[in-house]
Amino acid sequence: MEKENCFNLNLVNLSKKGEIIETILIGLFALFTPFIIPQLLELIAGKTSFIATNSQYVVGSIVNIALILAGINIKGNKKIIGIITLPSISAICSGFIFKTASIYTVYMIPAIWLGNFALIYLYRKIFVEKKKNYILASVVAILVKVAIIFFGFNLLTWISVIPGEGKVFQALQLSMGMNQLITATIAAVISYGVVLLMKRKKDLYKEEQ
Q1: What is the rounded CA–CA span in Å between residue 146 and residue 184?
Q2: Helix, strand or coil for residue 190?
Q3: Which among 110, 114, 106 is positioned nearest to 146, based on CA atoms?
Q4: CB 141 within 8 A of CB 118
Q5: Which of 16, 29, 133, 162 would bridge 66 by S-S if both were Cys, CB 3.0 to 4.6 A apart?
Q6: Which domain holds residue 71?
Q7: pLDDT of 84-107, one tens digit each?
Q8: For the chain, what is the domain count?
Q9: What is the pLDDT of residues 104-138, one digit of tens each?
Q10: CA distances to 11, 76, 85, 184, 201 from 2, in Å
């Protein structure tokens, strides 16, 4: 029951129309970012440019922003589940982020979903429900997410589902470890600006009352 109540909380209460718009926008970002951003970066900077060949950092940061904002201000289990599952499916289907490693990334989906859920849940639990410091919530949520995903990667490597050496191994090790930490941290910093705006809106609403 406590868990259910937790997912019915948000930082700023919106109208029904506002909630629908917010959910659609965050859902679209989560779904289409892995499809659109890599191609856009290639078009703007060229296929061999540094930013295009490292598009995972841009895509990962945007997806994590969507996850964090969902954790802070979207109510309802079904909406949250949708936002958790969309990015990984989109990234694998597009094939742009993990290239030839995409087939092995399919096996990582459960760990990625669990890591995304942990990120959302911990932000909601620590920052929204318990009203603790945003930085504390960010540190705990990010570390737990990365730990879950990296543990899943190591487990699959240990049981030989994912190759234990070579370029694919190195690419996935970086993607499921350090890159997860970097992109989630960038997202937390950017999302903090959105949180400040949301809090400002909340304070203005109270003043009007």
Answers
A1: 9
A2: helix
A3: 114
A4: yes
A5: 29
A6: 2-208
A7: 887 777 766 665 445 545 577 788
A8: 1
A9: 778 888 999 999 999 999 999 999 989 899 999 99
A10: 17, 14, 23, 27, 27
